[in-house]
Amino acid sequence: MQLELAILSKRGGRSYNEDACGHWHSDSHLCCVVADGAGGHGGGDKASKLAVQNVISSYAGSPISSPDAIERLVRQTNQSIISHRNDDPSQHQMHTTVVSLFIDLDAQTAAWGHCGDSRLYGFRGGRIEAQTRDHSLVQSLVDSGMLAPDKMRTHPQRSELLSALGTSDEDLMISVMPEPWPLLAGDVFLLCTDGLWEYVEEAEMQDALVAASGPHAWLDSLERAVLRNAAHKPSHDNFSALTVWVSDPGP
Predict the structure, then answer these.
(1) Fewer CB within 10 Å: C terminus or N terminus of the chain?
(2) Which of 247, 244, 245, 248 is nearest to 22 (CA)?
(3) Domains (ranges, CATH) in the chain?
């Protein structure tokens, strides 16, 4: 298997960027992380960077893939965010979403886990075959049948989270892929913050993917879609994405 990555992170209509992205790889493992912080300047951007750094450093020290190990890693990252709140008074309310992808090239499998409303999409054959479910108020309304899925992006409380890192452990909600995803050539993964998916519907993601010549071209297309669809809202959120394209290197 051969992997190709591309990253996009923009501050949008905000005065600074509270999103963070990162990745680490060895000959046999890859870890990718996207986080969306909140809590004011000096808080949200700090929290998202801490989340990315903690996940990557922990994984690099001991690559993991089991659901239990991924959940433990996210919980440990949560404790790291909480412990750093006392570093500065401006950070007392900081928290962050996180979504992480872990690829084992020897086993040719992928796994992932998340907290909050930053998402992972798994594409196969240009179509979405896997998608994380947000820990948010609007997701809970959709799950209960009280809100149509196509209303999620426009609901007035669409940004209200039910969980994020920086939450007490007993209230923390973490979702982990229950079984490994067997990798196939042509698979594509997209990790993104709500500042991207709020303005790019899934059908548009798929159409742009099919038309793209590669990962960088795809993210360029998604960026144009955000700017086009958010043109009516000059103060639109930061938006970030990290994509991994899987291919067969051939003979």
Answers:
(1) C
(2) 244
(3) 2-247 (3.60.40.10)
